[in-house]
Specification:
Structural class: mainly beta
Strand order of the largest sheet: 1-10-9-8-6-5
Radius of gyration: 21 Å
Strand content: 35-45%
Helix content: 10-25%
Order of helices and strands: HHEEEEEEEEEE
Length: 177
């Protein structure tokens, strides 16, 4: 009888050790981190890795402005010779609060509603930024000359700091099956 109790205690201790070793630190691995402050924005400049055949890249910024997370689109010039180089193409950016999550990995899907240009930052909340190309090149029905696909960025606020928030982020955010 005592041998079973000792074995049971040993197994319970081993399971506890295993469960605690796979905590939040594992959820941080592989994701970039930064302090988002009024002076330090997350800027994505001329990005097109998510759609390498697009006619132009996307540019946007995610900043802390007056206590709000504010997203703004930018403008880029085309990268294809078939499109006049003097043209500029805009990116429109919006953000949605995904809600309270345990980590960046917990942001597992792209919201279909709730997007706006600014949100109130909250610790342990996830957010999804949606960047949409506004060049309207897809209207020409030429597969060789097209707008970039929508770009998604997922963000997680770990904690408040003296000047802003420590965040983890990933782009392009692609929902895994």
């Amino acid at each position: 009888m005592k041998k079973r109790n000792i074995f049971g205690l040993f197994m319970a201790a081993a399971l506890t050790l295993f469960a605690t070793s796979c905590g939040k630190a594992d959820d941080r691995e592989g994701f970039a981190s930064m302090e988002l402050t009024p002076e330090n924005a997350l800027t994505i400049t001329e990005f097109m890795e998510h759609d390498a055949t697009a006619a132009y890249p996307m540019t946007l910024s995610i900043a802390l402005v007056d206590g709000q997370i504010v997203v703004r689109g930018g403008e880029c010039h085309p990268v294809l010779d078939q499109v006049p180089q003097q043209n500029t193409f805009a990116t429109e950016a919006t953000i949605a609060d995904y809600g309270k999550t345990g980590s960046l990995k917990s942001v597992k899907e792209i919201p279909t509603t709730g997007y706006t240009t600014s949100v109130a930052p909250q610790e342990e909340h996830g957010y999804v930024v949606k960047a949409v190309a506004k060049g309207n090149l897809n209207a020409y029905n030429n597969p060789a000359i097209h707008d970039p696909a929508d770009l998604y960025v997922r963000i997680y606020i770990e904690e408040a700091t003296e000047n802003g928030y420590t965040i983890r982020y990933q782009y392009p955010f692609v929902v895994e099956d």
